[in-house]
Design goal:
The structure is a homodimer. By secondary structure, chain A is α+β, with helices and mostly antiparallel strands. The first copy, chain A, contains 12 helices and 26 strands. The longest helix of chain A is centred in the N-terminal third of the chain and has 15 residues, at about 90-105. Chain A is globular and about 75 Å long. At the A-B interface, strand 7, strand 10 and helix 8 of A face strand 7, strand 10 and helix 8 of B.
Chain lengths: ~450, ~450
């Protein structure tokens, strides 16, 4: 199942919220998040321009009431939770119904526009709220779905053997640490850890010297995903995706190098993973679906449980992802962040559907709210490499900042800013928002 | 901090529950678990012989009331939750206080013994309750702390390079899947997955052919563990352990072999991890602490953050772990399970304290209720190998069952039964209970 393009995507509809048009969050987007108006009062909201529609306030004002009492009540309950998990569990029909209703409520001429008191009750300026994690992340899985990233990194860690034989057969992934998933804007403390010593020297323990970011696209599982352990048919997988966010999978390369054999990355990753606060729904992405990666001649065709003929037409996502850096010196001098890379999710070797179908294929219980990261999004060109390890080629090609500073890896005070968006001719651009985090010195 | 041996460990104290003495759960043990008397009514209990002390019923009967109103109220709340997480969060002082009180309540001559009505209210026969997972497992981490296991497995997967250079420097571990942690007694469906094909053949997808178990000891983090990200001093680590359980980390060896490079085990593990229902507290283990593994001459001394001189005296746990198998044929013929292995946790290269201090050393948030597995517990002798991969040496030395059946790996209908206990001269033996699971055919 995909989502059809419907009236909620219509480029001609306009919101009465004036800041919406041309912003990251026009009325065609309607991403979900969780915010606090007052401390401890978590609420589900939808971003529209510079404002947030408070869904709990909408529900209590009866704005979701329609002609199906049972379903209306379910929606009111789902929208009144302090996290998105229960809403994520409801599945595509309910998600669509809420989206259609929210779209109506935010259009020019709606009952909210016409009632100043109601408007003040249900709409809040975004700069007056504090964002929270959108849901409780039960489990976090990180994939490795960019063949460019895997080849680049593989050639550094295993020069003789960059791309392992399994790479083109399975979307390689590993279990991450759910407890270290944090919200954009939170500072990231440089981790301590054990690193390989010099020649014939013992390893050392101390602050990571090779701190890196990884630009990823994340997705949240939704619906009753794989509770019976039956697996997910590849053709059904997209219906089990609630939405996407930006992910910075911070990485300590020196800790990683020493620890990762034979059981994979562990403490090199589990100190922090930042995510953007607004979850752009799978339905909002409908106009931006693009053909899945076109495997070059000679690459194997995926096994049947990972192959969907339809995905050749629209299995991918046409999202552009950008990484910027603002050093402490740049900040002091009032400079703008400098772009480090820009690339497209279209170059990913594996689709989100393949990742999810693979993940569920062994009967693994997948729960609404589980987060999965795509792995670093790197494209074929140098400018599209999604981490410093690749961009500076392990530090051998340092990057010069406008202040004259150079970077092989991240320095204390550096802020990494990730942005993403989808655009195509004839359709309003929708933003994926921003994921930012600043590096603090090690403890 | 360790726990001193105190009056709750005194071998001379007797419970009025007659089945307690000589059972897995004498009054010196007092393990915690969660059970249902009626569906949906989860309660925290303490096992004593063939019965369960219902802590919620005790709290509501005022049996925890003492001279510190605030603390008594906290204990009453913690004991009235449907899962152990909140109690696990309270830390060693509260745990000890509850243990002392429960010990008093279960002794011969206590107010419970003397009041038949009260007794009927707070004590339930174990065979009349259904056990549940003891807590919500936020994150599950699996270590690899037996050098015998690591060397055996390494020599099969990497004959030239069995024990990697990091092994004796860090307790190698990886993030597991919390959602697939299940309770002893639940059936385990043989997973499907992708496996390497024959020579020059493509990989195949289907039921795992090399299904295995792994005998592990698990431990639950407790207290405010690493919320500030400051790490845990090795000398404080044991105070952050609420208790231990038995873990069967079911493993699909053929799926593992194909998928595990370069990011570690993933779907070969995430279909099922079974745990025993009764959590034996760190305090109950006080009489059974033994010297940590004595590293052979030439092995490196751990770096300071992983070294505690005191652990040379009592850093280990003197627990015996046994694995038994009951095939479908054996069951039909009314046979007893056959012992496959028996070994001791004393041979583990890394202590639980080292695992926890390492895990927290990068600032990773660790939350009360997080589960960590030791990795397969294998000792130096063949009979102490904790998985079939090692016992049958990858299938080359099959095991014969009393029915004449042979096993290289697990067959459908096989039930794996793990048991554990601690014993030492002059001290009542305490059991770790049982962790069992039967293999169902693949879907």
């Amino acid at each position: 199942m995909g989502y059809e393009i419907n009236e909620t995507h219509d480029p001609s509809i306009q919101s009465f919220v004036e800041s919406a048009a041309g912003s990251d969050f026009p009325i065609q987007s309607l991403p979900f998040g969780v915010f606090e108006r007052e401390e401890g009062d978590n609420r589900i909201g939808v971003a529209i321009g510079d404002e947030v529609l408070d869904l709990e306030a909408c529900a209590s004002a009866g704005l979701f009431d329609g002609d199906n009492e049972q379903e209306d009540e379910l929606i009111a309950i789902a929208c009144s939770m302090g996290a998105l998990n229960f809403l994520m569990f409801q599945g595509p029909e309910i998600w669509s119904k809420i989206r259609r209703r929210v779209s109506e409520l935010l259009r020019a001429g709606s009952e909210i526009e016409q009632d100043a008191e109601l408007r003040a009750h249900v709409l809040v300026p975004r700069d007056q709220v504090r964002m929270l994690l959108p849901c409780e992340v039960g489990d976090f899985t990180d994939f490795y779905a960019s063949v460019h990233h895997a080849t680049n990194v593989g050639s550094m860690f295993r020069p003789d053997n960059p791309l392992l034989p399994n790479y083109k057969w399975i979307p390689v992934g590993y279990h991450g640490r759910a407890s270290s998933v944090m919200l954009s804007g939170e500072d990231v403390v440089r981790p301590n850890g054990q690193m390989i010593g010099g020649d014939d020297e013992p390893p050392t323990f101390g602050p990571c010297k090779l701190l890196d970011y990884e630009m990823e696209l994340g997705f949240f599982a939704g619906g009753p995903v794989n509770e019976d352990g039956e697996g997910i048919a590849i053709g059904d997988a997209w219906a089990h995706v609630f939405g996407v966010c930006l992910v910075n999978d911070w990485s300590a390369r020196d800790i990683q190098k020493w620890e990762y054999q034979p059981l994979g990355p562990f403490l090199s990753k589990s100190f922090a993973t930042s995510i953007s606060p607004w979850v752009v729904t799978a339905e909002a992405l409908a106009p931006f679906r693009v053909p899945a990666f076109d495997r070059p001649e000679g690459d194997p065709k995926p096994l049947p449980h990972l192959h969907d003929e339809d995905d050749q037409q629209h299995g991918g996502i046409g999202a552009t992802l950008e990484v910027l850096l603002l050093s402490a010196q740049m900040r002091e001098q009032g400079m703008e962040p400098m772009r480090l890379s820009i690339g497209s999710f279209e170059h990913m070797y594996w689709t989100i559907q393949q990742m999810l179908a693979h993940h569920a294929s062994n009967g693994c219980p997948i729960i609404a709210g589980d987060l999965m990261g795509s792995g670093t999004v790197s494209g074929p060109e140098k400018e599209s490499r999604g981490c410093l390890l690749e961009l500076t080629w392990r530090g051998s090609e340092p990057i010069e900042l406008p202040t004259g500073e150079v970077r092989k890896f991240l320095a204390d005070g550096d802020e990494v800013i990730m942005r993403g968006w989808c655009e195509r001719e004839g359709q309003p651009r929708i933003g994926l928002g921003e994921c930012r985090g600043r590096v603090l010195p090690a403890r």
